[in-house]
Amino acid sequence: HYYSNHFFWNNHFGNMNTSRLGLQLFWDRLKMTLGADYSVYKNVLYFDSLARAAQYNGQVQVFHAFFQKNIHLFNWHLDNKVTFQQAPGSSVIRLPQWVLEEALYYENTFFKKVARLQVGLNLFYVSAYYANAYMPATGQFYLQDKVKTGNYPALNFFINAQVKSVRVFFKIDHLNANLTPGVYALTPYNPMNGRAFKFGASWLFFV
User: Fold this and answer.
1) d(CA 73, CA 75)
2) In the prediction, which pLDDT does 187 show?
3) pLDDT at 27 over 70
């Protein structure tokens, strides 16, 4: 039941059921993880293209697999995670087919291991897809088929430093804003934040 200035409905929905089967393998010596799972959703509740609550009378199958491998060479680190996901023939669950999460950074200790420093970049990317739009009136995401989002790499720069109990960080969010082509939006009509500089520090006192 929902009543507001812009929307109202009185529905009688059935229970939504989820079945999931998954497997995850980890090789400690190689620092590598492989995982996959298969899910079946029945009677999916969602918000349709008019942002109204609805229920899909059927089942939706979702396949998800990922590969994660962290590479360490001297003081350099390359953390990789690649995800593949698909909901074949689904009109109510929208997913980007590919998700990339990458981090390249230098890490070292100084002054007899009293100080620790990390400097690097991280990247987040999803392939193009029809992401759900946002309806402020209900605070919910709903289906849309007009605008594709994704296919854009968001790059961040960071510096983390620690000296004993003092921690300091400096970060540039969305370093490549306005430098690379593409529409940087995670949801339609709502672009990501532009380039932002962030700085913080914490000092832990022992009593």
Assistant:
1) 6
2) 87
3) yes
3-state secondary structure labels for all residues of the chain: CEECCCCEECCCCCCCEEEEEEEEEEECCCCEEEEEEEEEEEEEEEECCCCCEEEEEEEEEEEEEEEEEEEEECCEEEEEEEEEEECCCCCCCCCCCEEEEEEEEEEEEECCCCEEEEEEEEEEEECCECCCEEECCCCEEECCCCCCECCCCEEEEEEEEEECCEEEEEEEECCCCCCCCCCCEEECCEECCCCEEEEEEEECCCC
Pairing of strands 166-173, 190-191: unpaired
Average pLDDT, the chain: 92
Nearest by Cα to 71 from 107, 115, 110, 125: 107
Q: Which amino acid is at 149?
A: T
pTM, full prediction? 0.85
Torsion angles phi and psi, residue 31, rounded to 5: 55, 50
